[in-house]
């Protein structure tokens, strides 16, 4: 074989190897690229990663034993023993491992670029929900989004900032406090509305909130429905005649299901009014009821009491350094009398990731 021919064969072989490696690297890069550049969170204590630490309220989770299973075993302001659903979602979508609160005084540029939580524990869509507690109403959280946009523009410029927000995943989780604080436990709104009217009242406020998010550039929005409110340990304790009776309050669960049906029907109508938006319903009722009805499937031994204290009433300041906790929080659906444990949050995140962010879902964002 002529030397020139041999040289060409060797050169071609090397080119094939280089091209193969380059394509393989590009393929890996595509796999590692997240679907969303950032994640933005709004709502109540189910998604508050620490904003209440920085406002004047008693509704805080910045003390032990909150955070006992969080990386570093430190209380962060999350109302859980560890991570929350949005933390797990952000990790599953390869955005980041945990979501910082927007009010944290030492946010890095990367924190801003990849998203924050604006949520506030104890919040709701109804302005009455936050009057006594002093927490941040959901509608006011949209005002903080304006401040976020200013900071984002300082880092990457106006054009890039708008692109990030447009492509970001937005999660909204609120409503439970509205019913508990204003209708069931303190019946302020019950004087004005029957239950159906109050559901509609809240969803009108939700509609206003979503429109404001849209006006600020958000396009991919997931709205969480209500959980089975009547199965929250604190609601069972408040409504059942006997402490030993830990059966769910069916009227409250029925109300939650009706609200969710209305919400699932409303969101496509809102989407139709907002060109270019994708607004989807996130069902948390179904997976939580499955955990309650089939606890062994998830490794739970207790689903009607929280891990903190007696598990009947403790939450927030009542779940503190002096309060004993269960040995294995992962065996409890609820961490305190209101909030899911880290284990339950992880199961919920996996369910939502499967339902909302995969190609097999009708609600797929991309």
TrEMBL record:
| The protein's name | GDSL esterase/lipase
Family statement drawn from the similarity comment of this UniProt entry: Belongs to the 'GDSL' lipolytic enzyme family.
Q: Which UniProt keywords apply?
A: Signal
Q: Name one GO molecular function term.
A: hydrolase activity, acting on ester bonds
**Secretion signal, residue range per the UniProt entry:** 1-20
Recorded coiled-coil stretches: none
């Amino acid at each position: 074989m002529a030397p020139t021919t041999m040289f060409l064969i060797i050169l071609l072989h090397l080119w094939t190897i280089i091209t193969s490696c380059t394509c393989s690297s590009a393929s890996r890069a595509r796999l590692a690229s997240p679907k969303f550049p950032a994640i933005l969170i709004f709502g109540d204590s189910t998604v508050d990663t620490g904003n209440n630490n920085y406002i004047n309220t008693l509704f805080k989770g910045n003390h032990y034993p909150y955070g006992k299973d969080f990386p570093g075993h430190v209380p962060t302001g999350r109302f859980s023993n560890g991570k929350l659903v949005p933390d797990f979602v952000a990790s599953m979508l390869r955005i980041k491992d945990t979501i910082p609160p927007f009010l944290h005084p030492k946010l890095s540029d990367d924190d801003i670029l990849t998203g924050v939580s604006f949520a506030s524990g104890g919040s709701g869509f109804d302005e009455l929900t936050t009057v006594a507690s002093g927490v941040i109403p959901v509608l006011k959280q949209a005002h903080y989004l304006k401040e976020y946009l200013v900071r984002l523009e300082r880092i990457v410029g106006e054009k890039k900032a708008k692109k990030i927000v447009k492509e970001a995943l937005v999660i909204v989780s609120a409503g439970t406090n509205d019913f508990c604080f204003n209708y069931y436990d303190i019946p302020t709104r019950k004087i004005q509305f029957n239950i159906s009217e109050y559901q509609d009242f809240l969803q009108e406020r939700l509609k206003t909130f979503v429109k404001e998010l849209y006006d600020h550039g958000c396009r991919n929005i997931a709205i969480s429905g209500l959980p089975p409110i009547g199965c929250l340990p604190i609601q069972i304790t408040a409504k059942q005649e006997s402490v030993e009776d830990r059966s769910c309050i069916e009227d409250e669960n029925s109300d939650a299901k009706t609200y969710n049906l209305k919400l699932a029907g409303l969101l496509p109508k809102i989407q139709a009014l907002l060109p270019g938006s994708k607004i989807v319903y996130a069902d948390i009722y179904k997976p939580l009821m499955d955990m309650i009805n089939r606890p062994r499937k998830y490794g739970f031994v207790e689903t009607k009491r929280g891990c903190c204290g007696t598990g009947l009433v403790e939450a927030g300041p009542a779940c503190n350094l002096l309060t004993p906790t269960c040995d294995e929080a992962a065996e409890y659906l609820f961490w305190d009398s209101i909030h899911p444990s880290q284990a339950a949050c992880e199961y919920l995140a996996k369910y939502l990731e499967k339902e909302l962010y995969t190609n097999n879902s009708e609600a797929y964002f991309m």
